[in-house]
Write a structure and sequence with these properties.
Rossmann fold; 5-stranded parallel beta sheet; globular; mainly alpha; single chain; 5 strands
């Protein structure tokens, strides 16, 4: 029996190496009929199911792998199981595996790094940083490690440590542009203390290399940021334009497809369709904060999580993941998902979402789910989770669009790197949000960013009242909130509330005139 299983496993491995997923899956499923506890086979067939878009099968095999992980398992295998569970959205099972006895006394540096990244993915940033500190003690000393440790130090408010890590990264890898950008963002640069000469040298060094890569763009974004800090706005704009052009050249954004997609979403999601399911969920409930990226969602998150009955869970993809699970599909919003929306079980979506997230409340009544792009599915959130509160951050159009244009995001947001694309995307955002507010009157609270900054206490009182929470003195004192923050606002939100971000685009009024006209239209 063992020899036969071994032969089947080797055959499946050959198919996988040749990317013959159909035969590989057949061989693995045949193996599992003979040995349902074969951990590696569950991981492998789960990966095949994920590649083929069969999300439910991927979830099932990931959970089977977790159930069949022995106490004496190799730590690297346990980490593989954790990574697989996180990929398919099984956060609770992943956290159980993170406490596996095989990991208790781990000393291997690279495995500690992988564990830290898993902790980071579930927003357990203090634990992630502790694991990275152990990895450093174990001798890990690579550019990627220093970069990740610097980022995690920033999340945890250890800014001096972060600066040392980013500098160590750049000493080892001078073209590691993301580290240079992170270093520039740690503080406002001054004429006496900045990195402009250093950035210029790094950019000269890549002039003869193949350009168009993310780190090249990051060096230009860093140069833009430092030049702007020094008030050298013409030079800053030139760097910003180059940075965005480098990124946009690598990506694709189809404004017409996005418009058609949201047309169908709006047509489908009528007031009747969006009526909440009749269910009463027990336990802690979510407060969703959504809106355009860079609209002030982190500021509201910090204010709300100062309340004694509220905790911040960070930016969660759990609702989108459960929507995808219900549709057995890997994408949250596309043509296939729109076809499936009418037939989905929204009671089950809500139940599964809470099963994966309520642990994050840590004894409090509410937890904040602050994923800005949930604006696309706000109506579906309301249908699946009738007790949830939904807060919509609204920031002045030019301010929020310019803030997107000057920020290097991942390649998942190509529209941020081109002004015409940015204007098109913003128009869709405003159109969809107007629809949600009209189709579900009174079910979402619009929170103007300007009010939150200029009248923080009065605005916070309105927000708390909408959430069913009583006022508590000190909610608007950001300096009280010592918890980790893992967004691009991680430096600013550790300061008292300020109004410096209003109208920053006006330094580039001439260059942004086309964007202004497009947004007004």
């Amino acid at each position: 029996m063992t020899d036969r299983i071994d032969r089947q496993w080797q055959r499946a491995q050959r198919y996988l190496a040749e990317r013959q997923f159909g035969p590989a899956r057949a061989a693995l499923e045949s193996l599992l009929l003979r040995d349902p506890t074969h951990l590696q086979a569950h991981l492998a067939v789960g990966r095949v199911a994920w590649a083929e878009g069969s999300l439910r099968d991927a979830v099932r095999h990931a959970l089977d792998a977790a159930r069949n992980t022995p106490r004496e398992a190799d730590p690297t295998v346990v980490v593989d199981v954790v990574a697989t569970l996180l990929q398919v959205g099984e956060v609770v099972a992943a956290r159980d595996c993170l406490n596996h006895p095989a990991l208790a006394n781990l000393r291997d540096g690279q495995t500690l790094v992988r564990l830290a990244l898993s902790r980071q993915m579930v927003n357990e940033h203090a634990e992630a940083l502790s694991l990275l500190d152990r990895a450093a003690a174990a001798g890990v000393d690579t550019p990627d490690f220093h970069f990740y440790r610097g980022v995690e130090s920033t999340f945890n408010g250890r800014m001096q440590d972060a600066e040392r890590e980013f500098e160590a990264c750049l000493r080892q890898a001078p073209m590691f542009g993301r580290a240079a950008l992170a270093l520039s963002r740690l503080r406002k640069q001054t004429p006496e203390s900045n990195h402009l000469d250093d950035l210029a040298a790094r950019l000269r060094a890549i002039s003869g290399m193949a350009q168009g890569w993310e780190d090249h763009a990051a060096l230009e974004f860093a140069r833009y940021k430092e030049l702007e800090d020094l008030g050298r706005y013409e030079e800053a704009w030139e760097a910003l334009e180059r940075a965005n052009a480098i990124m946009y050249a690598q990506l694709r954004y189809d404004a017409e497809y996005e418009r058609r997609l949201f047309d169908r979403l709006i047509d489908l999601c009528t007031s009747d369709f969006l009526k909440p399911v009749e269910v009463q969920h027990e336990g802690p409930q979510p407060i969703f904060i959504l809106g355009m990226m860079r609209s002030g969602t982190t500021l509201l998150d910090r204010i709300l999580s100062n309340h004694s009955r509220v905790t911040s869970a960070g930016e969660l993809d759990d609702f989108g993941m459960q929507l995808r699970w219900a549709a057995d599909h890997r994408f949250t919003l596309d043509d296939h998902m729109l076809q499936r929306l009418p037939g989905l079980d929204y009671v089950e979506i809500g139940r599964r979402y809470l099963a994966q997230t309520q642990w994050r409340a840590r004894g409090r009544s509410f937890f904040i789910d602050k994923l800005p792009r949930n604006w696309m599915v706000a109506g579906l959130i309301r249908r699946a989770l009738p007790q949830a509160r939904i807060l919509h951050l609204v920031r002045e159009p030019m301010d929020v669009c310019f803030s997107n244009f000057r920020t290097q995001f991942s390649d998942r947001f190509p529209y941020t790197y081109n002004l015409d694309a940015l204007a098109a995307h913003y128009r869709q955002y405003r159109r969809v949000m107007a629809h949600w507010h009209a189709a579900m009157p009174g079910q979402l609270l619009a929170v103007p960013y300007a009010d939150l900054v200029r009248e923080p206490e009065a605005t916070a009182r309105k927000v708390l009242d909408f959430c069913g929470l009583e006022w508590e003195p000190g909610c608007v004192d950001l300096t009280r909130n010592k918890s980790a923050v893992a967004t691009l606002s991680m430096v600013q939100v550790r300061e008292p509330i300020h109004a410096r971000s209003f109208g920053e685009w006006r330094h580039y009024e001439r260059q942004l005139e086309g964007l202004r006209r497009a947004l007004e239209a």
